[in-house]
User: What shape does this take?
Amino acid sequence: MKSILAALAITTALTLPATAWARPVTLDTTLKNYSGNGAYLAIYVTDANGVYKGSLWMAGGKSKYYQHLSDWQRATGGSLSEINGITGASVGSGRKLSITLNLADALFDAGYQLHVDAAVEDMRDSPSEVVVPLTTAGAGKATPGRRYIESFTYNM
Amino acid sequence: MIRSLHRWPGLIAAALLLVLSLSGAGLSVFPALETVTAPAQTEAGLSIADLTARVLVTHPGVEQIKRAPSGRITAYWFDNGTPGAAVVDPATGLDAGSADASPVERWVKTLHRSLFLDDSGRIVAAIGAAAMLILSMSGIALVVRRTGGWRRVFTSLKGPLPCRLHVEIARLSIVGLLLSSVTALWMTASTFGYLPENNVTPAIPNTVSGEIGFSVTDIQALRTAPLSSLRELTFPYPDDPTDVFTLKTDAGQGYIDQGTGALLAWVEPGAWDRISETIYMLHTGQGAATLGLLLGLMALGVPLMAVTGIIVWAAGRRARPKLRGNVAAGHADTVLLVGSEGGNVWGFAATLQAALTAAGQKVHAAPMSAFAPDRYTNAARIIVLASTYGDGVAPASAKGFLDRLAALPAPPSMPLAILGFGDRSFPDFCGFAKQVARAAEAKGWSTLLPMDTVNRQSPQDFARWGHLLGAALNLPLELDHQPVAPRTKALTLMSRRDYGAEVQAPTAILRFALPHIPVWRRITGLGVSRFAAGDLIGIVPEGSPSPRFYSLASGDKDGFVEICVRKHPGGLCSGQLLSLEPGEAIQGFIRPNPGFRPARGKKPVILIGAGTGIGPLAGFARANTRHQPMHLWFGARHPDSDLLYRPELTEWHEQGKLTSVAAAFSRTETRTYVQDILRRDRARIARLIANGAKVLVCGGREMAAGVAEAMTDILASQGLTPAMLKSEGRYAEDVY
Assistant: This one.
């Protein structure tokens, strides 16, 4: 377990080149036209039981609003060290967030799940809007979200 | 200093404040609209559990129920794989409208808080709020200084219309603008995380029952909490036994086990959160819709103040002339020190400087605040031109002068001449110039000329003083000062009534047609289209650019412009006016004189005048359709020759527009003057004063002095003086 966490921590550093034990993965999140302000998105990994393992990306710059990403908040206690260096701007209605990072091979086909929490100002919070298992077979397949996300895809 | 703190943030931020205030005013409508349109809660004791039960009937897949401060209830659900949301009627649990925020509101809100520029825009908007705060504070300081103290902040104002409008709007809106700008800054600081925050989210309990299916309506915490305290209730994810209910109310936030209905954790909001919530409510009006509307209305004052403020600034700038050939302090033989607030006195200084320079003098003109006698090594005289700000306060460019004078070990060796600029209708006429004169006398400073005054920027007063100065310096000095010429209109004479030929005082009542004012000028208030008796008309005679002022005997509602003019021997303007025949025209403009008119209401008015001074008093009587008690004491030479308005006076008396009329004639056998009949009627006048009467005196300077003396005697019995009445705005003079 410890080695996986360590690998995860390394993979989240985007500047690292792909190595023998990690590969570049592109996460595409396309939002619906929900007619609201920019969405905050938290992308993170849990094991099959839903136990939090680590964060991959936080879209949205103001930490005071992270409590609305309630599953992520619940898992991390809102700890900012979890997303140190992996934050970006919130994503506007109808826009697409595309991030590429090096994910450890060990995360695939091992029962891990990728979660996306979403929140929009003055609108309904949507924790675990998307939950997809990380499998090599699932790569490239679009998954719709419950409320704000039109489709979520990871490509290798 | 305070003035620049008001001027520069105002000019720089005007456009930004326009956007922020208009969008803010627009946003203020939404909370009120929401309160009105949202289905209201009719049952007083409704609990959260009651409402939840009703919503569950309509939407079994409900995920969240929110209550806005306006009382609007919104439910979010997930039925058959599709999310939905609606406003819910608490009485029935049925859908009662769309839950989507209005796109208009969202657009205006984004504009208001970030100008569509995200965080950079938020910072710009916060700078706007800071500018608003600085403008409000400096504005308050200026109004306090101008009116002469905190207790007089709400007294009536005098001055040009844009200036008065600016202050009037500020008085109405300042509280809201202060509140809005302070709360805006607080909210920005909070958004950027500069304020401490209590973490209200309690830790999720590690142990839950792991069961599901406890009836929501049986949960104790929801049964006891009234619906009015609800903020939001979030249901656990279906089929996730580890999830919990999350409840937020006014009292705090906590979790409820979905298997047992037990309250698992509860946290109350901290002091900071409560403060932030209150500030949010005060700024947005959400939860305080009426206050919000009020703030929005006050925000509408900002565009008006931006426009009037810029007009005031531009007018002051135009009025300030460039000084040509100003000599350095050490080389000048004449030092000209200027104490000016709005820049008007600088115009006079420039005329004086030019005239003295033309007469071969080397002149150094400087603000009074730059007073440094040790630098005036070649100076043979110092001339001080000083206006007064408010109640005898030093004007902006004279700050520190009196302190510096007091600190001198010995008075300057060169003699001093002081010319004060002021307005006789103010209680402390030329108050600051008089202070300077007293301080100079106390210091033992020798005088070149006794202190003199210029009333209402009168070019005639200035020219008269110029002759005195020229005589003292043994120089031919003609001071032809032309204040920035106001736009004139051609006034066409309709009719004239002539008097006084028999007593060697040709006098006429001249009635002109109303000048045509274009509509846009009426709207913008640039051309004075409204005027009342007691306002002034400036007549610009042919052959002189300087206007002569006459008091109006009519208002625009009368449908004509009327003045009384007596021919002065050799008088350029009065000669031209008296030679006008009906159909002929002369150039003129109207200048407001709001200090000289009867107070509104039912309190009595004492009108005192002589000669042509009866003009505005007659105008007051003519306009007195509400039958305010008006008592007239006036003087003329002879009842058969120069008794102006004779038929009208009788008529107005019969109509009740004039309660009493008393006249004094100086060329009859009795030889009485108006002050004599005042003394005769002293008991009646004292009674009127005791009943709150306002005194309005119009006429020549000598008559006004005689009247003031008589009134001083009459008022003494009540422990009053004309000066005391003046300071209350109850004694006004229009003297020429």
About this structure: The first helix of chain B runs from residue 2 to 27. Residues 405 and 439 of chain B are 8 Å apart (CA to CA).
